[in-house]
Amino acid sequence: KLQEQQYALLKPLLEAQVAGGRYAVDQSKPLIEGASQGFSDLRNFWQPLVSGDRSAIDQFLSPERRAINQGYRSAANNLATFGPRGGGRVSALAAADEQRQGRLSDLVFGARREGANQLGNITNAQAGFGTNLMGAGMGAGQQLSGLYNNQANRSFQQNQITGNDMAGLGQALGGFLGNFKTFGGSGFGKS
Question: Is 114 exposed, middle or buried (0-12, 13-18, 19+ CB in 10 A)?
Answer without folding.
Answer: middle
